[in-house]
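Why do we care about 3D structure at all? Because function follows from shape, and shape follows, mostly, from sequence. That is the central idea of this module. The next example makes it concrete: a single protein chain, its amino acid sequence, and then its structure expressed as tokens.
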Amino acid sequence: MAHEYASPFYASSAWKKCRAAYIAERQAIDGGMCERCHVELGYIVHHKTYVSPSNINNPDVTLSFENLEFLCHTCHNATHFGSQ
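And the structure:
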């Protein structure tokens, strides 16, 4: 779940459009497979550089495809929680 400071960003039309466009691009590339394990289907668009209070207004972090990955649930949890 998103931190409270990030909730407005994740509810924004800019994020929703960016997320949908990124998923569409990944589906066109490889059917939407997880960019890490390449075994499971992607589940969540993940920010490689985490969104924080200091960068939440920086579109190079929040809305740049260069900072995004489409991850399966397992890989996303491993990234954030250190377990699968």
